[in-house]
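Example record used in the benchmark description.
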Amino acid sequence: MSRTLLTGGHGFLGSHVLPYLEGEVFAPRSSEYDLRDRKACEAAVDGCDLVIHMAANCGGIGYNQAHPGKLFYDNAMMGIQLMEAARVAGVRKFVSIGTVCAYPKFTPVPFKEDDLWIGYPEETNAPYGLAKKMLLVQGQAYRQEYGFNAIYLLPVNLYGERDDFDPRSSHVIPALIRRMVDAKEQGVDKVVIWGTGSASREFLYAQDAARGIALAAARYDKPEPVNLGTGSEISIRDLTLLIKELVGYEGELEWDATKPDGQPRRCLDSERAREEFGFKAETSLREGLASTIEWYRENRHTLVDAA
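Model output (structure tokens):
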């Protein structure tokens, strides 16, 4: 592929994918190309052979609860119009980055790709999950009617350096890291955590996810969706205790059970990714968390000032 369009290339995940791409890479910012606008999509794909679409409006449970309409509209419009523009322009391959939020609320664990349609997503993030899920439907429909080579990847919850640490929109790991580090440095004796801690999650280090996306872009050309994960899960309570240990925070934890836990469990079956394009996660959760905590400590004052 001589020219690649990487949407979201300056965001959290995109910044990790960028170094894996060869040839000319076009990674416009949202301020330059509003992908909710059809003409902007047409301009963005012009002259491109490969499109990797990972631009998204997303956030944690609180952000999803506050902005369900915006999350649905922004993500659906960006993806649907960009794929149509790519098809019309003759783009050779389109890689859609979906979300684990597309899975039904009570999917058998570990989640298998064939179970994507057995129920409705968890309510707190269903609008976002369904908007992203439509790109799987669109890609399969375009392949059937137009022979368009669109693939769909489902990364599990991501974390790592350059994540979103803004408390208004951050996911669980950056939110916990920020609260623990700040509490330790400020001498706060108690941190309040959302939910009961009973829900479980699987977490994939962003650099591992980026490598998986690059492998799929190079080697995978089939209509079936593909999970990207580690195959192991951890309860939010145990995750919180692990981050507390790594940060060195010695205060108390208080669980606010009035706040939602979200989906009860998330753990993916990633065998298809291994079989189809040789992907396997390499970074342990402890190792990845330690690197992410170190990065936040080194950059937190810049992030706080920006917020």
